[in-house]
Amino acid sequence: MEDARIPDAPPEIAFGEPVSVGRSVFTPQKLTIKPGREPGERMLVLTGLLENVTGATQKAVFGFPEKLPELSSGDTDFPTPQVNLVRDNYFLKQLEPRIREAVTIVWKIPQDWQEQDVSIKFSAQKFKLNDNLYSKASWLLFYPTGTLSVRPEKAA
Question: Does residue 108 sit in helix, strand or coil?
Fold first, then answer.
C-alpha cells in the first residue's frame, strides 16, 4: 500500500529525464530567455520532447481540464504558457499516439522579473481502470510528478 501512495513532495528532475504529465511523457531539454515579438518583450522558452503514451489521439495532452506546467520564480506571477510545435511554430492542438514531437512551452516574462533561478512544476492525472462510482475507466484528480529547478540561459 505504501508504494501506491503519492509522495508529499514531487521528485526533482533534470534535463533529459522524462516526467509524466498524465496522458503524455515530457522530456525537458533546455530553458532559454528569448526576445519576444514586441520591443522589450521577453519569453521564457522550455524546449523538450512530448510523447502521447495512450492508444488514441489526445487533445488533452496535459490532462482535462488542461493543467500546464507551473512556473514560479520569487514573487513573480507568470501568465499561462502556450505550447507550440517546433517543426512549424504552431500551437499544439493534438498529439498522435507514440509519436514523439519536439515542443516549446512559452511563458511571457513580466517586466519586473530579474533573471534568476526558476522552478517548473509538472502534474499528471491518475488513470483508474475501474472508478468507485460507475466502475468504468476514468482519469482522476491531478497529482505532482516532478519539479525542474534551473537557471535559464540566454538565447544566442
Answer: strand
Residue 88 makes CB contacts below 8 A (sequence gap 6+) with none
Distances (CA, A) of 2 to 5, 6, 67, 137: 5, 9, 26, 23
Domains of the chain: 2-154 (2.60.40)
In terms of C-beta density within 10 A (0-12 exposed, 13-18 middle, 19 or more buried), how is residue 122 classed?
buried
The rounded radius of gyration (Å) of the Cα atoms in the chain is 17
Whole-structure pTM over 0.90, yes or no? Answer: no
| φ, ψ at 110 (rounded to 5°) | -65, 150
83-126: per-residue pLDDT in tens? 999 999 899 888 999 989 999 999 999 988 888 999 999 999 88
